[in-house]
């Protein structure tokens, strides 16, 4: 329920301020009561000091601090603070003078000397001003810190969403290319009515399951990724027949090692797409090993230096490295080596170990 503007002003501004200044009045009465013999009738004297205290406090906290100090106009703040100090000191002297006269019923000969009361009065007034100013600055700092934190969180959230969108875009680039190559191979087998077509369809269905249902998971087991790498290689062996030689050096892996899905398969796919036959065979060597908290992955394929390894509408190594930047920032090392006959990629990845669910 939204309060009426007047009620909002009453409960959030007028009433709290009134209660606070009532507390200051009580403080003054107690402060000057402790100074018996110097300030007679402390309650009446405190009433004389309230206007100058309120005026000085509001001038500092609602004019000097927000207009000059918080805007880092330190010279102007210092200058106007001196003006305020001089004027407030003069107002305090006047308040003391007329307050003492009033309390002594205009009997000048019975007045307490001004010098005896001046120091106590100024201490009381400026103590209130300083305490409120300190509270105002602390409140501002806390509010600024909260706003900065909220702004930082919004920026981080926006960056995260941007990274997620970029990652989805990169995945979309991978999927069509991956499917196109595989379906193209399957099409060739279907035309020849090969007996290997059913086996090829089965392996393709496994890959599609991985592609459609596992790839959106944040992490998958390394053993799962390896199984689909082997399925992909089997499909390519059916396509290349005797013109392909693949050597796998992949020992059994712990089931608790997890990586991002479809992270390694594109590197294998890249070697098939851009490798060149050495003699009458395309030669590919793939090794994957784990050491402590790292995965060492290497793909090496035969290569003709006269042919360019640039992408023509495909995913490319640049795409794959962007995925690594997004998924494993500062947690991977990637290198490319090539000579006249071989093209090799080396990836060292800091992996996660998670408890197996089954």
TrEMBL record:
<protein>
    <submittedName>
        <fullName>Histidine kinase</fullName>
    </submittedName>
</protein>
<dbReference type="InterPro" id="IPR036890">
    <property type="entry name" value="HATPase_C_sf"/>
</dbReference>
<dbReference type="GO" id="GO:0000155">
    <property type="term" value="F:phosphorelay sensor kinase activity"/>
</dbReference>
<keyword id="KW-0418">Kinase</keyword>
<dbReference type="Pfam" id="PF06580">
    <property type="entry name" value="His_kinase"/>
</dbReference>
<feature type="transmembrane region" description="Helical">
    <location>
        <begin position="7"/>
        <end position="31"/>
    </location>
</feature>
<dbReference type="InterPro" id="IPR050640">
    <property type="entry name" value="Bact_2-comp_sensor_kinase"/>
</dbReference>
<feature type="domain" description="Signal transduction histidine kinase internal region">
    <location>
        <begin position="166"/>
        <end position="244"/>
    </location>
</feature>
<keyword id="KW-0472">Membrane</keyword>
<keyword id="KW-0812">Transmembrane</keyword>
<feature type="transmembrane region" description="Helical">
    <location>
        <begin position="43"/>
        <end position="65"/>
    </location>
</feature>
<feature type="transmembrane region" description="Helical">
    <location>
        <begin position="77"/>
        <end position="98"/>
    </location>
</feature>
<keyword id="KW-1133">Transmembrane helix</keyword>
<dbReference type="InterPro" id="IPR010559">
    <property type="entry name" value="Sig_transdc_His_kin_internal"/>
</dbReference>
<feature type="transmembrane region" description="Helical">
    <location>
        <begin position="118"/>
        <end position="138"/>
    </location>
</feature>
<keyword id="KW-0808">Transferase</keyword>
<dbReference type="GO" id="GO:0016020">
    <property type="term" value="C:membrane"/>
</dbReference>
């Amino acid at each position: 329920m939204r309060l009426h503007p007047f009620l909002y002003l009453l409960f959030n501004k007028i009433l709290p301020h009134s209660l606070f200044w009532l507390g200051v009045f009580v403080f003054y009465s107690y402060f000057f009561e402790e100074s018996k013999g110097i300030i007679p009738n402390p309650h009446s004297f405190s009433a004389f000091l309230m206007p100058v205290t309120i005026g000085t406090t509001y001038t500092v906290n609602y004019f000097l601090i927000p207009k000059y100090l918080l805007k880092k106009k330190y010279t102007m703040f210092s200058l106007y603070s001196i003006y305020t100090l001089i004027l407030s000191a003069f107002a305090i002297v006047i308040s003391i003078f007329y307050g003492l006269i009033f309390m002594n019923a205009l009997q000048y000969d019975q007045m307490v000397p001004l010098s005896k009361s001046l120091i106590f009065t100024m201490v009381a007034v400026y103590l209130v001003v300083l305490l409120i100013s300190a509270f105002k600055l602390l409140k501002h700092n806390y509010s600024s810190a909260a706003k900065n934190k909220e702004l930082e969180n919004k920026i981080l959230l926006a960056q995260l969403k941007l990274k997620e969108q970029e990652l989805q875009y990169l995945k979309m680039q991978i999927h069509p290319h991956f499917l196109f190559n595989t379906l193209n191979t399957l099409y060739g087998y279907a035309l020849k009515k090969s007996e290997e077509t059913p086996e090829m369809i089965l392996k393709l269905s496994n890959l599609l399951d991985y592609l459609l249902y596992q790839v959106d998971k944040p992490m998958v087991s390394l053993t799962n990724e390896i199984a689909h790498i082997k399925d992909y290689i089997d499909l390519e062996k059916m396509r290349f027949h005797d013109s392909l030689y693949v050597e796998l050096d992949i020992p059994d892996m712990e089931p608790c090692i997890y990586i991002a899905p479809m992270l390694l398969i594109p590197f294998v796919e890249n070697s098939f797409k851009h490798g060149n036959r050495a003699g009458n065979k395309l030669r590919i060597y793939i090794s994957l090993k784990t050491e402590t908290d790292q995965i060492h992955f290497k793909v090496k394929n035969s290569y003709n230096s006269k042919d360019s390894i640039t992408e023509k509408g495909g995913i490319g190594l640049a795409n794959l490295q962007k995925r690594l930047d997004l998924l494993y920032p500062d947690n991977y090392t990637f290198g490319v080596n090539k000579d006249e006959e071989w093209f090799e990629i080396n990836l060292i990845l800091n992996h996660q170990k998670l408890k197996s669910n089954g």
